[in-house]
């Protein structure tokens, strides 16, 4: 195939969204898992968000003037988040995904690191990412449920406010060694972030426990993360969803005891700098 790679523009959003939806649904259906995007509309919204955001770089692959794939690089913070990378199922396994990856990694030269989350059952994607230098860092499980326990004494959970941004960024830096300040700033106006506090000090936060692809959370320790999840559940009528690093074994067992169920296995991969977290955390679909 004669394939060219160019930067994505807003007019590409609908076509990219359709390919994102079809690609994820195709692989999920073949393995008996739910797709990342429940409807075509949500996939188009994701494509539009990524293409129009000034700090997200996007590329598309074209053949015969038709878009056949896309990829995105979130550049809001020091660690870059990669994806989703998708190719039209009708033309997969022809090297198009590799070219889309190489285009954003070329853009990423000089960054501290880049990370992604992939479906563990997708053998083609994990092999592609590994061949490009990514290493497996964490096994994840998409968990869904609604804990019904009570908050422990002395801790409160409330919506995250603009005045909390600095303290939340410092907590992220303590746990991971880097900040996600700009992503936090976006979340205040576009998502439903929450914080947990002890003696008016923020000990945990989460961006969107009702929208797992865009959520991430950090906490001083496991008890603070549990309190955050309990408080968020009390504030939401629907079930919560999150990507749980299952090496946090006692938190995993607690989630199961609270009625969460495992939905889908995923894998966190990284290229460049990586430090083992010093605390409790939940990644987004990027990292």
Topology:
Layout: E1 4-7, H1 13-31, H2 40-52, E2 56-63, E3 66-74, E4 79-82, E5 86-87, H3 96-107, E6 113-119, H4 123-131, E7 135-145, E8 155-159, H5 165-176, H6 181-190, E9 194-198, E10 201-206, E11 217-219, H7 222-235, E12 240-245, H8 249-257, E13 261-272, E14 280-282
Parallel strand pairs: 4-6
Antiparallel strand pairs: 1-2, 2-3, 3-4, 3-5, 6-13, 7-12, 7-13, 8-9, 9-10, 10-11, 11-14
Helix pairs in contact: 1-2
Instruction: Give me the secondary-structure category.
Output: alpha+beta
Q: Helix tally?
A: 8
Instruction: State the shape.
Output: globular
Order of helices and strands: EHHEEEEHEHEEHHEEEHEHEE
Tally of DSSP β-strands: 14
The CATH architecture term of the largest domain is: 3-Layer(aba) Sandwich
Helix content class? 25-40%
Query: So, the CATH homologous superfamily of the largest domain?
Result: Gcn5-related N-acetyltransferase (GNAT)
Work out the strand percent: 25-35%
Q: Regarding CATH, which class of the largest domain?
A: Alpha Beta
Number of domains: 2
Span between N and C termini?
33 Å
Q: Any idea what the radius of gyration is?
A: 19 Å
The CATH topology of the largest domain, please?
Aminopeptidase
List keywords for this structure.
globular, 287 residues, 2 domains, single chain, alpha+beta, 14 strands, Aminopeptidase, five-stranded antiparallel β-sheet
Please summarize what this structure is:
This protein is of the alpha+beta class and 287 residues long. The protein has helices at 13-31, 40-52, 96-107, 123-131, 165-176, 181-190, 222-235, 249-257; strands spanning 4-7, 56-63, 66-74, 79-82, 86-87, 113-119, 135-145, 155-159, 194-198, 201-206, 217-219, 240-245, 261-272, 280-282. Helix 1 (13-31) crosses helix 2.
